Amino acid sequence: MIEDHLNRELSRRLKDENLRKTVEVTQLTVLDIRDLERYKHRLEQGENTLHQFVNCRSIRDPTYRSDFGSVISDYLPAKHREAVQNECLNKVFERVNKLFFETGL
Q: Disulfide: which of 3, 19, 47, 86 matches 42 by Cβ 3.0-4.6 Å?
């Protein structure tokens, strides 16, 4: 993974350099264009913020061994997906209700 390589390189370069005594750099979060495009609608609709995505990743996968998209989809599910599923389920119940209970069968 490129993220792992970049983190090792950053650590190597910062090893002899101190930014400040109170500052510690632990991991980089690298987002590729595909991840940003995948979650663009969630950001635009206000479901989540980029800050929430990055925090979710750092809390759920502190060693950064999993793919960013996998972590987000596992631990920060989309709200709109649940709404769409509920809407589909309600339509099925309505059809069943009409078919079996309103027709007099």
A: 47
